[in-house]
Amino acid sequence: MRTICIDIVGIIFRQRFWLVVCVWMVWFCPGAGAQEEQVDFIDNVRLLEIENRMLYFYDQLQEISSLIPEYAPEDLDKAEVRVSVVDAKWDVYYQSMRDAIANDDSLLQIVANYQVAKQSALDSIAYRKHFFEARASFDEAEAFLLAQDSVYARLYDTALGYSLVKSLGAELERVKGKEQLLAEEARGYYERAKGIAQEFDELSPRFSRMEEVYIGLRNTSENIQALEYKPWIQRVKDYLYSFAAVALILMFLNMLQAKWKAFKQARENARKLAQMMNRDENEYPTI
């Protein structure tokens, strides 16, 4: 009898155990699943918040970059400070969220895009600064070269006057020395402007005018350096020689023109003769 009672108690105990297991599975397992979903939801919200914050910094850089082409020279330093401020805030936030960012590919892509945008903004600012500095240097060279026409005209007149008097040879040499220094300075400005115009195409039209002026200055410089005292007889001879040279050139050109006309006339006569011969052949009766 005692053995039977023990068996009955064991059966009841085993039934209660499985009942408890079933109740736990019914009540607690759905709760665990809901808890996991809640954790995932919180993580997603946190990642979304991080993403929005990172995009906020990225959009600030994009806004600065879009305005750089419109900035005046004095505004570029302010733009550079704005980029530095945004980057400092970004760096603090990035360091605080570094672990979360490192585990998410989309956030890592935003990091890469941000770095590209920052470098692009800094490069644009540096380029605009360089452009304004180069343009200021170009303006200086342009102002100098365009002002030398009258200067060189006076130098040539002065040198020419000194070259007519033998006793003023020393004064003539001083004028030549002054002109050489001025020519070297003009060449430096010209080379500077040429390099800037090659770098920035928008300055090329202005450089074309400068180049014309510089070529004229160089020709005048050669004329000044060639001046020297000559007796009047020698000057007359030089004038006659130059006149004779011009006359020879004109005579040569006239001769070429006459030969060209004769050649054209001979060709025309040959054409007419060929036409007459063809017409005569066509007049023979055909059999």
Written overview of the protein:
- The N and C termini lie far apart (159 Å).
- By secondary structure, the protein is mainly α.
- Helix content is 90%, strand content 0%.
- The radius of gyration is 48 Å and the shape is elongated.
- Among the domains are: 133 residues; 48 residues.
- The protein is built from 8 helices and no strands.
- Keywords: Membrane, Transmembrane, Transmembrane helix.
3D shape = elongated
Rounded mean pLDDT is 80
Q: Whole-Å distance between the termini?
A: 159 Å
Number of H- or I-type helical stretches:
8
Order of helices and strands: HHHHHHHH
Main β-sheet: number of strands, strand sense, barrel status? none
What is the percent of helical residues? Answer: over 70%
Number of strands: 0
**Gyration radius from CA atoms, angstroms:** 48 Å
Percent strand: under 5%
Q: Which regions are unreliable across 5 or more consecutive residues at pLDDT < 50?
A: 1-34
What class, by secondary structure content?
Answer: mainly alpha
